[in-house]
Amino acid sequence: MTFCTMHVPTLGCGSRRRGFTLTELATVSATVTVIAGLLLPALSEARRESKKDHCLANLARLAEASMVHATTDRTEMPIPAHPLMGMLHGAVGEYEWGGKSGIGAPLSVNDPTTSMWGTQFGRGPASRGLNRIVYGDVFADFLNDPGPGQSNWLNDTKLDLDVFHCPADYGYTGHHSTVWRDSGLTSFDHYGNSYVASTLWVGIPGADCEIMSNTPFLRPLSRIPNAANTLLFLENSGKFAWRKNYGADGCTFLAGGPLGGDVEVDIRGWHGRPWHFQVAFVDGHVATIRMEGHQQPQPRIGRYPDLLGFHTQYFNWHCVIIRGPGWQKDTLPAPPVRTQISCSGGGVLVNSIQ
Q1: How far is CA 302 from CA 88, 97, 234, 297, 312, in A?
Q2: How far does CA 238 lie from the centroid of its chain?
Q3: d(Cα 220, Cα 324) in Å, to the nearest integer?
Q4: Can you count the helices (H) and strands (E) in the chain?
């Protein structure tokens, strides 16, 4: 005898559940495809916004750490000067104020520990001043202790120093060091830092020429007159975006160095928009700014005031008054800060960043 228990009202005894037809499957597949097509851009935008927020948060922490440095350091400088400033090839302090050991521009192609940005060349994490403030005094100085198989030097290149690493940092985006471009590395891996300090160098030609800083770098915090507008740090992709119209101001004679000639190409920030870059200002606030070339202040300033006691008619000071909507690199009217690095050697230093 056969028994039939009716648990499912719509199915009779012996009935079987019908499967999907090909038409129904195709409809479901098409629906899923449409939904995915609608969701993916939103998810991509959400990821981009998350990276943007993360990067801005990093810059805010770096600005805060700079304020701590300025208040605890006897020099009152917001950006730590590296101990090798002016004494080593390319040591002009733009990257080695914080971060890990970089692996860019190695002397030996197959050995990343030979990078000029690494521990072997005195630029390890223990030597980068803001690291101590952000993470504490936790980095051993391995300059003279490479470890078995150079393991200490290699480990310094692998540190996960999140505050100095922009999550959107995917490397070169136009008009920057050709060595960085050719390396194919992120800024974080090449230099050990996704961010660059705002630096600008000036000098008056002559036998006693000395490089001077025209930005917050090497300058006490109290000698920065417009802290809310003055750039402190920025994402490295935009370091040279202010140069787009440099030649139009008659300043091409200062445009030497290892940069490519593609000043007019679009430079994309790491967050998706050409000529838009994330920055931190001296007063501690952060923002996304547009930096597509620079604007000369009006009326045009032909030269710096004689704040240094120089009596000169050197009319190219306007080439280092670099400003844009809501931002400036220069610290006019404060005078430039002497570095005690001669221009003869300094020209090599300034033009040798890789």
Answers
A1: 34, 33, 28, 10, 12
A2: 7
A3: 23
A4: 6, 11
